[in-house]
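Exercise 3.2. Students should predict the tertiary structure of the chain below and write it as structure tokens, then compare their answer with the key that follows.

Predict this chain's 3D structure.
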Amino acid sequence: MSLCIAVVGAGVAGLSCAKALTQAGASVTVFEAHDTPGGRATTRKTELGTFDYGAQYFTARAAEFRRELEHWQAAGIVLPWKARVVQLADGVRPVPKAQDPVRYVGVPGMSALAAHLAKGLDVRLDQRIRRIEQVGHGTQTRWTLKRQADPLDPEGIEITEGLFTTVVIALPAPEAIGFLEAAPQLLAQVRRVQMDPCWSLMLAFSEPLSLGYDAAFVDSKRLAWIARDSSKPERRSGERWVAHAPGAWSREHFSDDPDDVRAKLARAFGLATGASIGPVHAVVHRWHHSAPMKPLAVGALWDERAAIGVCGDWCSGARLEGAWSSGRALAERILSGATA
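Answer key:
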């Protein structure tokens, strides 16, 4: 059977899946609600330099992903981040962290990974898919996608996209739920997944803070992680930091005014680091679904009868490697069914 596949979501999982399917000869169209691909593997550009305000870095554990990493290195889109990483608690002297696996980052920003994965794919940006609709029955079942004509107007006109044999949902679990009515077994599994939000803070300073480290895991109610973004390779010089709030605090303050969140997190940064100067730039971003509380550890989800699959880091581990592996795992299951 000739495969004509729609992928909803152009994060690392969706792009990984689309890449593998395309390389196998399938016709694949990727729909992304935002104006750039990558999901949380993204970089924000400002007049002061860039900020990796989502995924901070990645590691490579599994052999298959290490082979992919070698391709990325050969393409010049990733480099090791030789960061001095410590552990911090409010008012406590920094403690060097035990040796970890090598950390890698995209260059010149984390968004370089998505740009590389998207090369050669039919990726349609600013295409917010509202729902999928079944056409026909049995072996003749096909799917159409209904999207917003105007990405900024959720109540506006719908446009129908294509006629697809297969649909891949590559979204955070809470967002995937609305697409799975025709696959009740998948729906039941996805409903079990809870994902934490995360408030992210981007700070820039007029002079170096000279803290003696580049990143820290923070034992604080308001902060879980801080990193000097400008310490990463091939970044513009300057003093730029990213801070992430813990999931519990982000849930508690999910609906707070962004200005209040910015002020609270900036104070927490100053308390944790002892920084004596204030930032010249401070912006927050709220990730609605940042990390799964408990990943499913299933690789990916696939309903052959409905021809609907689901992938994401929440399927196979809350890491960039998990997202990439989940997309590949789903592609293999789809292709296995097509050639059986």
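Discussion points: The first strand starts at residue 4 and ends at 8. The CA atoms of residues 40 and 54 lie 5 Å apart.
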